[in-house]
């Protein structure tokens, strides 16, 4: 896998125009004198594609084995974002995405593309799965419903979808050798495909295509993982020929301990200003969106605006009209009211929809008999808010059965959890560590109980606090309460590693699985994500 290949430091100068050092304001307000700080979203949203439709901005991101996939974020100012929906309702790409005899960890939704077609007022999502086929989904609103329009036999790796000014559909894709495909007017079939560019050996890998037509010129925006960004330009049409220019290389990012801003996409405001939304590798939390203004040279090349030779920690806020509504916060309380889960939630692989329900909280019935959390269906995940945040969950465990395990995990390829164990008719609160996978994502450790405490009553509050500042392994800690006020620490600190190879960052996960027999259940009455 070439993505995130260890790359030697490249040569060349940063392309950028220095700005005066921004001040220390952390305001995200829009207006004269206001500024925003990076990252604009300190959560794991990688491989971003960003577009504007009217006065609203949308961004799509990778989710790999989480379901539903391909979240769509929404903003009115490029700074404050909410999760509006998902473009891929279910990962119906094979049994492994159901944890049925195989597992889909680190497969599924990779870098994909989001576009809007004015002629039919429709959103399009396009992405390849398992290097086998490309899938295209459509919706008239990002909240959905999204439905599959077609399957195309060519796997458009790291694709960028362009809806041209004449309504034609083109896809830029590939790794190092970049190709352009034209789709039929209805988007259902490939009409032609052609290689248009091969990265020079001095650059190496190029991928993560984004495809634009700007002032009559065609641009393919590509990344050198994970430390560079380049752009290809054609004045002769979508099939080239293309010339290349470096946008940035080994640029210092705005997150201490994090990586170089790269990949992502370009977007223009209503007023004509341009911005580049990239992401920064910031493990253990994942890949985090950052935003910088862009200007253009007289001959049509983009230039990222720098602050003291680096991607700025802060910039003046985009000059956009005031929004008609406020976006939903990324933190806060969820009592699982309503008839559907809020879009912040994603299952670890596809859920068994017969084993969960809403109404007086979230009921999780055991869906799998296993001693391995990585095989357990219906684990429900939520991104961690950086740089540090705490998840607190209230669980009614009165309907658990012997052998059941239910609780709150810090979930990744090395995991730990706090939860309730029922054995021999007795329940206790336990902290478990040592849940591990190898580099092929096979389980190597199913966990060891590191601490426990007796519990009484039918309800318990469980709490996990995660420090996801990048640069080194960071601690996660667990505690519990019987009254929701006084919490008792349980077990040692858990070390959350910062290796990139799992790609997705740590998440909070709610789970309930059996080790003996199905039939038990828990009710999650309240979930709160809070920051210091």
Task: Give a description of the structure.
This protein is an all-beta fold and about 525 residues long. The protein is about 0% helix and about 50% strand. It contains no helices and 40 strands. Strand 6 and strand 7 form a beta hairpin. It is globular and about 75 Å long.
Helix and strand layout, with pairings?
Layout: E1 16-19, E2 35-37, E3 49-53, E4 56-60, E5 66-67, E6 69-75, E7 81-88, E8 113-117, E9 122-129, E10 133-139, E11 147-152, E12 160-163, E13 169-173, E14 177-183, E15 190-198, E16 207-214, E17 217-224, E18 228-234, E19 243-249, E20 262-268, E21 274-281, E22 287-296, E23 302-307, E24 314-316, E25 332-334, E26 345-348, E27 356-358, E28 362-365, E29 380-383, E30 388-396, E31 405-411, E32 414-423, E33 426-437, E34 443-454, E35 459-467, E36 474-481, E37 488-489, E38 494-496, E39 507-513, E40 521-530
Parallel strand pairs: 1-23
Antiparallel strand pairs: 2-24, 3-4, 4-6, 5-26, 6-7, 8-9, 9-10, 10-11, 12-13, 13-14, 14-15, 16-17, 17-18, 18-19, 20-21, 21-22, 22-23, 25-40, 26-29, 27-28, 28-40, 29-39, 30-35, 30-40, 31-32, 31-39, 32-33, 33-34, 35-36, 36-37, 36-38
